[in-house]
């Protein structure tokens, strides 16, 4: 669907960040707070600069924050994005 209401396919959380980046998919996150449910593409460049390209996706989930205050979000593979803006979910190192 073009309206982005379809959920993204689940990423294999055993994949590493570099494996996902090499698969022509982008990393997306969805807030775990049911009343929020924010979804955003994640720019992984900062994680890669910090040497986390070999980290498993499951190990990166705790490094996400949502503007609603949630301290965890679920990662998934999604369509590639041309540019990253400030989204409701952000990564930290």
Write the layout of secondary structure elements.
Elements: H1 17-21, E1 26-31, E2 39-42, H2 45-49, H3 57-60, E3 64-66, E4 73-78, E5 89-91
Antiparallel strand pairs: 1-2, 1-4, 3-5
Task: Throw out a few tags for this protein.
single chain; 24% strand; 93 residues; two-stranded antiparallel ribbon; alpha+beta; globular; 5 strands; disordered N terminus; 15% helix
What would your notes on this structure say?
Helices cover 15% and strands 24% of the residues. The chain is of the alpha+beta class and 93 residues long. The chain has a domain at 17-81. The strands form two sheets. A three-stranded antiparallel sheet has the order 2-1-4. It has a two-stranded antiparallel ribbon with strand order 3-5. Strand 1 and strand 2 (39-42) form a beta hairpin.
Structural class: alpha+beta
Proportion in helices: 10-25%
How many whole angstroms does the radius of gyration measure?
A: 12 Å
Return the average pLDDT rounded to an integer. 84
N/C terminus separation: 33 Å
The largest pleated sheet is described as:
3 strands, antiparallel
- Counting H and I runs of at least 4 residues, what is the number of helices? 3
Total number of β-strand segments?
A: 5
Subunit arrangement of the protein: single chain
* Apparent shape: globular
Strand order of the largest sheet: 2-1-4
